[in-house]
Design goal:
This protein is an alpha/beta fold. 61% of the residues lie in helices and 10% in strands. A ten-stranded mixed β-sheet has the order 5-4-1-2-10-9-3-8-7-6, with helices on both faces.
Length: 587
């Protein structure tokens, strides 16, 4: 058991060191000020406790503090001094509490901002094994657990400072009575380390189960349609209920462990105070007023002992949450500081002579791909064959295994290519706008756009009539039950963002899948017309898109990408087999 407790204590100490390393210089300075204020409050509180003795025994000469405790003072004056000490104590504690609250709030804000910024800058490959539920948990509830741990650390600081000052006063009042202090401290330490391993295990399981609950809860309307169509409502309820039951058990067990620790500490505190009375009775020469003063000072520690137990439990619960936060903070950054050695002139084409990327497992080879502004490239192939991975590389968001390309007739490496296509736009099938209104969604892409510009792009993507029927127009809410846009309308809205962006490279990964075939062609043709300086790459399974494409990149089952330009289609038709989309391309 001692080894398990030692291991739990080591984890708590590691967490404390890690938490302190996450504090900025200003936060460390404020933490120091918080400790100083807590020290002042502890001093004033202990002084007020001792000042109660003349009120309990008025006119009695005290064997300690003869200057401070004048037995000839009136009771009214002693009461006034006591009240003044309590006011100072209350003001210092209030100011420390305000500073502590500000520290905790800003610390939580800092944790969220830092891990979110790290996730935004992280390479896509480093997030491949992370579920969206886990990431959502890291950004939300997981940070709350860490903040609770940080708040618990503050409470431990207060308890430690108060204990040190109170024990110091007690030793000043009566050194003989403080011979029992080491025994009381040893018993308190033993109680604080009890159940340490179980608390750590319960805290870790709580984080795991909360992540599973996020998984069950995310994108609930879509999930509900899927569950209902399979007639699995009861199974879904049972699964969710099982996770909820585990969370209930974990939370209940945490509170039980806190209550058990509180009971143990209270019993030990009562035994310690009783031991002091016995010691005072057996040890002749100990003044009654000294005994009262020491008991008052030690009695002040009782609520801190109880809160200390709870604070240790919160710290143990915060440990697995902090480990998860650190794991995401250790992600590398995908941002590149490499600037092009020579600027590519506007409208210049990029020629990718050879490119190999992994995944797919066996590797995908692409060669002789021309990216010409104003032209549309159709990417086709079976599902799961690597189209999205190819688009990630073309967007500069994932590094290929091999890359040979030219711009303006000169060779460029992938870092330079990434910089050249940085002014881009990437829309995938599963992205749904998270803004509140149509206007907010469009201004996110182009903050300086006027209402006239917004209405113009909505006309381009075929949303003008839909919004004309809405009383709120551009301020139509995206997710309101009375004005909710359909999946196809939301895709049109995202394509309007692309037009406002005017990117050098636009990648649409099945971003028109919710539209019917005829509407898809109309909208893509409008994008091509409105983006004459944009390289447009479209991933689609529909053959009709080939009618407006300038070249097609088809990924075969052998993971070899064949690039065919419109002028060379007849010669290359056998490579694609009997596909209607290429027949329609030739018409």
């Amino acid at each position: 058991m001692s080894g398990q407790s030692s291991s739990a204590s080591d984890r708590v100490l590691d967490l404390l060191r890690s938490l302190m390393r996450t504090l900025s210089a200003s936060e460390l300075a404020e933490t120091a000020a918080y400790v100083v204020l807590s020290l002042g409050a502890a001093f004033a509180g202990s002084l007020a406790a001792v000042l109660l003795v003349p009120l309990v025994q008025p006119g009695h000469t005290l064997p300690f503090g003869s200057v401070l405790f004048d037995a000839h003072r009136s009771v009214e004056m002693q009461a006034l001094i006591f009240a003044a000490a309590m006011v100072v104590f209350a003001l210092l504690r209030w100011q420390a509490a305000r500073l502590g609250a500000r520290l905790v709030g800003r610390y939580g804000m800092s944790l969220r901002r830092r891990v979110h910024a790290r996730l935004v800058d992280a390479p896509l490959t480093s997030l491949a094994d992370s579920t969206s539920a886990e990431i959502a948990n890291v950004l939300t509830h997981n940070v709350e657990l860490i903040v609770q741990g940080f708040s618990a650390l503050q409470q431990l600081l207060i308890a430690g400072v108060t204990a040190a000052v109170s024990l110091g006063f007690a030793f000043w009042v009566s050194p003989p009575l403080m011979l029992a202090a080491p025994l009381i401290a040893a018993l308190g330490l033993l109680a604080s380390r009890a159940y340490g391993r179980e608390q750590s295990l319960v805290g870790r399981q709580y984080v795991v189960d909360m992540t599973r609950l996020f998984w069950h809860s995310e994108d609930f309307p879509r999930r509900l349609r899927h569950v209902r169509s399979f007639g699995k409502e009861d199974v879904e309820k049972e699964s969710y209920g099982a996770i909820s039951a585990r969370l209930c058990h974990g939370y209940r067990r945490q509170l039980e462990l806190v209550a058990s620790g509180r009971l143990m500490l209270e019993l030990l505190a009562a035994a310690g105070i009783a031991a002091l009375f016995v010691l005072a009775h057996r040890w002749h020469g100990i003044d009654q007023s000294s005994l009262i003063a020491v008991c008052l000072l030690l009695g002040r520690l009782l609520p801190y002992l109880v809160s200390t137990r709870q604070s240790f439990q919160q710290l143990r619960s915060a440990a697995p949450a902090f480990e998860l936060w650190q794991r995401y903070m250790n992600l590398d950054s995908a941002r590149s500081s490499v600037a092009p050695s020579r600027a590519v002139t506007s409208g210049s084409a990029l020629h990718i002579e050879r490119m190999r990327l992994i995944p797919p497992t066996a590797g995908l080879d692409v060669g002789d791909l021309m990216l010409v502004p104003g032209e549309l490239t159709l990417v086709s192939g079976d599902s799961g064959i690597g189209k999205s991975s190819l688009v990630d590389v073309l967007a500069g968001m994932m590094t290929p295994e091999a890359f040979v390309a030219r711009a303006d007739g000169r060779l460029i490496d992938f870092d330079e290519y990434r910089e050249l296509v940085r002014h881009g736009a990437y829309v995938s099938q599963s992205v749904r706008p998270w803004q509140h209104s149509v206007r907010e969604c469009l201004l996110w892409a182009a903050p300086e756009a006027t209402d006239e510009m917004l209405r113009s792009v909505l006309t381009d993507v075929g949303l003008d009539k839909r919004l004309a029927s809405s009383q709120r127009g551009l301020d139509t809410a995206l997710h309101s039950s009375s004005s909710r846009l359909s999946g196809g309308e939301l895709q049109r809205l995202l394509l309007a963002q692309v037009i406002l962006r005017q990117p050098f490279l636009a990648l649409l990964d099945e971003a028109t899948s919710a539209l019917d075939a005829a509407s898809e062609i109309v909208v893509l043709a409008a994008l091509k017309r409105r983006l004459p300086q944009t390289v447009l790459i479209v991933v689609s399974h529909r053959p009709g898109v080939a009618t407006i494409a300038d070249q097609c990149l088809d990924i075969g089952n052998d993971l070899v990408a064949t690039v065919t330009r419109k002028a060379d289609l007849r010669r290359a038709a056998p490579l694609f087999g009997s596909s209607d989309r290429f027949k329609s391309w030739m018409q």
